[in-house]
Specification:
401 residues; alpha/beta; 6-stranded parallel β-sheet; elongated
Length: 401
């Protein structure tokens, strides 16, 4: 796609691991030039954070997954000569992101006030673990720890289970997506007013926002949401909402009228319950339903349920999902070519723009791969080439949206 919506914007990414880099990934997918500012020795710590000991080159598969389509510029933030170069980059950038603990960027002279003094129109976007105030501000902002602190681990699993975290870094992913939302809103504001902005978000706030339904219910009732003892799907929803084992797998049943369900699946044991019992007698209903559903195959039940437009679906593992035509027609996979010739398959940007899917085949950069190129641009003429860094969008009244 030739005219990506963020083409011409430059993002300096002082971020590592997942939350900040995942935001940079999405901005890059949408056309921004994203330059990772990395330590000369080791770079982004995620380069060495391996999942199941999977490596692409000298960097981990995880690093490649969230840093494709970016450039790498090495700089030692403790050295004044390197900080001077970064100030030149900042002067011509549109966005700066970081996800360091509170106080780190202040120590090296790249806090918001210092960066704004260099470039008043800059969009400065920062991620912390728990915010910049309060007794938690210096605690480690790691996803599992945040899930545990936020109460999220009491939303999944059955009522008798121990606290259960998500199997993915949900806080990092949500926080990165919300950081992008804030950046885009600030860019629109700058287009209208010519003013830069400070965008602040924390993993804790993202996970609290993620639980807005559960928390609002708790604020109103003063009672903790209660998970089903059987087939829990959502602690706020009544029976039959949840997953059920069949004779050959599992099916998911969503919001369904109990009387209609009893009739369609021919389950006399459910006929004595009314819709008013869906929550108050939730575990009893689910236990009876689970015993009934276990007698036949997933296909048997899905045929019955779908014939009567009742909401139910297969429970697929990734192998089953990948083989399905419904997955294949989405075209969610793309192949990247790493520097060492190794190929890796990952997901594409999920956004479609003007009907086009957004693919970016450029792999994650090697550490410092683009340092010399960017240094030449900084030494070049005042008007940099179109593909190089550009000043922040100038404000004109006619350009307001």
């Amino acid at each position: 796609m030739k005219a990506l919506p963020l083409k011409g914007l430059t993002v300096l990414e002082f971020s590592q691991y997942l939350s900040g880099p995942s935001a940079g990934l999405r901005l890059a997918d949408l056309g921004a030039r994203v330059i990772k500012i990395e330590r000369p020795q080791g770079g982004d710590a995620c380069r060495k954070l391996s999942i199941k000991n999977l490596w692409v080159d000298d960097s981990s598969l995880l690093f490649h997954t969230i840093n494709r389509n970016k450039e790498s510029f090495t700089a030692d933030l403790k050295k004044e000569e390197d900080r001077a170069l970064l100030r030149k980059l900042i002067a011509q950038a549109d966005v700066v992101t970081h996800n360091f603990r509170p106080g780190v960027m202040e120590k090296v002279g790249f806090d918001y006030g210092s960066v704004q003094a260099i470039n008043p129109k800059i969009i400065y976007a920062e991620v912390t673990g728990y915010g910049k105030k309060g007794p938690w501000k210096h605690l480690p902002g790691q996803d599992l720890l945040l899930q545990s602190m936020s109460g999220l681990v009491f939303a999944s699993g059955n009522g008798g289970d121990n606290p259960l975290p998500f199997g993915i870094a949900i806080g990092d992913i949500l926080c990165g997506a919300q950081l992008v939302q804030g950046i885009l809103a600030a860019l629109i504001r700058r287009h209208k007013t010519g003013k830069g902005a400070l965008i602040e978000i924390s993993l804790m706030e993202s996970l609290l926002d993620f639980q807005f339904e559960l928390l609002t219910t708790y604020f109103a009732s003063g009672q903790m949401p209660r998970r089903s003892l059987v087939s829990n799907g959502n602690p706020l929803l009544g029976a039959p909402y949840g997953l059920y084992a069949t004779a050959n797998g599992h099916i998911a049943i969503a919001m369904v009228n109990l009387q209609k369900l009893a009739t369609v699946i021919e389950c006399p044991a459910l006929e004595g319950f009314s819709q008013d019992d869906a929550f108050s007698r939730r575990d009893e209903i689910k236990s009876l339903l689970a015993a009934h559903v276990a007698q036949q195959s997933s296909e048997f039940w899905l045929d019955k349920l779908r014939a009567h437009d009742l909401w139910a679906m297969d429970v697929l593992n990734w192998q089953q999902m990948k083989a399905h035509e419904g997955y294949q027609c989405l075209g969610m996979e793309q192949t990247l070519q790493a520097a060492n010739g190794k190929q890796l398959v990952t997901t594409r940007c999920p956004i479609r723009f003007n009907g086009q899917k957004l693919f970016s085949a450029r792999p994650a950069p090697a550490l410092g791969e683009h340092t010399e190129k960017i240094l030449k641009e900084l030494k070049g003429p005042a008007t940099l080439p179109k593909e190089g860094l550009r000043p922040a969008i100038p404000f004109t009244q006619s350009a307001a949206v």
